[in-house]
């Protein structure tokens, strides 16, 4: 399969722009003046920056690969993401400002710090930190898989996909190390804008291109795969799976280590709300 040179050039431009912005974010030595400054930006981010950062942290390749593949294979059960998001932000609206106030008072920068402060236990704090790191491994793997899939479509025959992915990963790690949280925050703006633009483009264009409109698309699903339009009443992924997955995912969303870091960057509890 031959890649698409135009798509490759667009991808290269976006990647290089992100890397450049990531490094420029750390040109001020103040970002490396303390752990608090490096890891949570000195807790000075306003509501808009926090929105961009947390959005980029939470809505990643999983949104485009995980949920879409679930919808393609199993249909309506993928909609569990809607109630879980509603529940998660309802909980977060009341819980996260309280978490931020404690973190701000005691200068905490991670969930492990919070657990150590709250329960006075280095063992429990260490376990939280270790679990957080191990849980991020499959998460990072999913992001790299998304990058590789994109580059395979765009760059096959033009580039060595694996080398480019490894190089990109190292560059992102370097600018994060160099710029602290400000690097991912400013690059998150680009990512979030692209996510919205691509999502709206796909919603508007794909049904028109492939089915002649939304009506044609739904008619085809009804005729060829009607089981995808309903949630199974039995089986391993039935109603009970839908309910429990929504609840557990809602409770766990802001337990991700990178999500909590985004929360701690806020300049006030109202910025989170």
Record keyword descriptors for this entry.
mainly alpha
Quick overview:
With 273 residues, the protein is an all-alpha fold. The chain is 76% helix and 0% strand.
Give a topology summary.
Elements: H1 5-24, H2 35-40, H3 47-58, H4 61-74, H5 81-106, H6 111-119, H7 122-155, H8 161-179, H9 182-211, H10 214-224, H11 239-252, H12 257-264, H13 269-272
Helix pairs in contact: 1-7, 1-8, 1-9, 3-9, 3-12, 4-7, 5-11, 6-7, 7-8, 9-10
Describe the structure.
The chain has 273 residues and is an all-alpha fold. It is built from 13 helices and no strands. The longest helix has 34 residues, at 122-155. The chain is globular and about 60 Å long.
Q: Domains counted in the coordinates: how many? A: 1
Distance linking N and C termini: 48 Å
**Strand element count:** 0
Sheet of most strands: none
What's the SSE pattern?
HHHHHHHHHHHHH
Overall geometry comes to globular
